[in-house]
Amino acid sequence: MLAEFDMTDLGLLHYFLGLQIIQNDLDIFISQEKYACGLLKKINMFHCKTCSTLMNINDKLCLNDKTAKINKHFYRNIVAGLMYLTHTHPDILFLVSMISRFMQSLYVHHLGTTKRILRYVCDTINYRILYQHVAEFYFLSLQIVIEQILLMT
């Protein structure tokens, strides 16, 4: 393609839309360590006490809580940041979708649950997703496609 079009080879991809990408011949690692650090620094939780679990088992999120209301703008920014962080932290996906349901009626208890997720993110900030090159997968997918074509005829 370089001979046909005027382009420049920039080498391997390192950062893309907040995703850090580390590549070698067989593996690709994807993380959002820099993005998570920025999110934690933005809300002054970078040096917070970490926790190893996402949620206390006795916590229940209610629509009409008896605690004080909180700033919607601040909460929405945190939840939006956490939603983007789920690309490399699929373990927080369920709880982030759960806390996003309470955008209209926000109470201190919801913010406490959100901050616990952030403390968990601070503990797991260096986690990465690994994509490995597996030749058997390509062979298996090709075999499935061939079987489907044969069944159609």
Ranges where pLDDT stays below 50 over 5 or more residues in a row are: none
- Rg (CA only): 21 Å
Spatial order of strands in the largest sheet? 1-2-3-4
- Helical run tally: 5
Cα separation of the termini:
38 Å
Number of strands: 4
Overall average pLDDT? 81
Percent strand equals 5-15%
Q: How would you name the oligomeric state of the polypeptide chains in this document?
A: single chain
> Which bin fits the share of residues in helices?
40-55%
Q: Could you say which structural class the secondary elements and strand pairing correspond to?
A: alpha+beta
- Shape type: extended
Tell me the count of domains.
1
Describe, in short, the structure shown.
The chain has 153 residues and is an alpha+beta fold.
Structure, explained:
With 153 residues, this protein is α+β, with helices and mostly antiparallel strands. It has one domain. It is built from 5 helices and 4 strands. The protein has helices at residues 33-42, 72-85, 93-99, 108-123, 135-152; strands at residues 15-16, 19-23, 27-31, 129-132. Strands 1-2-3-4 form a 4-stranded antiparallel β-sheet. The chain starts with 14 loop residues before the first strand and ends with a helix. 16% of the residues are buried.
